[in-house]
Amino acid sequence: MKRHDEQIAYGRRLLAAAPDPGLRRSLAARLGSSGYVVEAVETGAAAVESLGRQRFDLIIVDMDIPDLRDLSRHRPTLVERPPILCVASCDSLEQLVPEIGTEVADYVTKPCRAAELLARVQVLLRASSAAREPVLRHEDLMLDEVGYQVWRGERRLEVTAAEYRLLRHLLLNAGRVLSKEQLAWQVWGESRATNTVERLMSRLRQKVDRNKPALIHTRRGFGYWLGEETAPRL
Predict the structure, then answer these.
(1) Which residue, among 207, 169, 173, 204, has the nearest Cα to 189 in the 3D structure?
(2) What is the tens place of the pLDDT at every residue in 148-176?
(3) CA of 71: how far to CAs of 23, 59, 63, 147, 183, in Å?
(4) Alpha-carbon distance values, 88 to 63, 151, 216 (Å)
(5) Where would I find the H helices in 57-160?
(6) Where are the alpha helices (DSSP H) in 33-70?
(7) Cβ(28)–Cβ(42) under 8 Å?
(8) Model confidence over 181-222: pLDDT tens digits?
(9) Cα distance between residue 216 and residue 221, in whole Å
(10) DSSP character for 178?
């Protein structure tokens, strides 16, 4: 049985933007050790680039980022706007503004304690999950983000934790070709051997595509996608 905090962290992707390398490493280490997949960037421009190519469940922003206010001119159009948790010094709290195109939901003050940071993250993710439909679907494939269960039609799929994460990411990016390298970094936040991704994808396909039509496809030389059999444009 998973502890409640482990369930909140399971498969959640966080974007942490901080100019100080020590703070970036600290955020990545503290959150990563709690089960979150963390992408840490140095600037607001890098944060915008990440938001344009990847879905995140929560954004953590250090208010000392020098180009923070420039983000209002370049912020991406997001289908789902993740909440923002700001890291700020006490004298900058009045400057908390939604520069990344979403609302500042909460803040922690510097120096932030690990326990307080994790507690704020868990509260925001819990509230965000409760506000949206906790089920991802494509055709007759369904992934339940509350019960961590997967169904294909009337058949429940017995998937491992790694298979669940991979399938969730494919569903969130349905119709988009993803390379093995992208899947390794975007699902686990680290580089993995291509044959590791291939083996995992093979096991997942055996479970998902036992029903027809097949939903997981390969574009040779490019990667994988979930959706219609006709290959989408890159």
Answers:
(1) 169
(2) 889 999 899 999 888 998 998 898 888 88
(3) 21, 14, 12, 36, 27
(4) 5, 43, 43
(5) 71-74, 114-131
(6) 44-53
(7) no
(8) 888 876 766 666 678 888 999 999 999 999 889 999 998 888
(9) 16
(10) B
- Torsion sign (Cα): 129, 133, 139, 143: positive
Exposure of 72 in the CB half-sphere (CA atoms within 13 A)? 6
On whether the CB atoms of residues 100 and 60 are closer than 8 A, the answer is no
pTM of the model: 0.56
Q: Which region holds residue 62: left if phi is over 0, alpha if psi is between -120 and 50, else beta?
A: beta
Does residue 111 have a cis bond before it (omega within 30 degrees)?
yes
Residues in the chain, total = 234
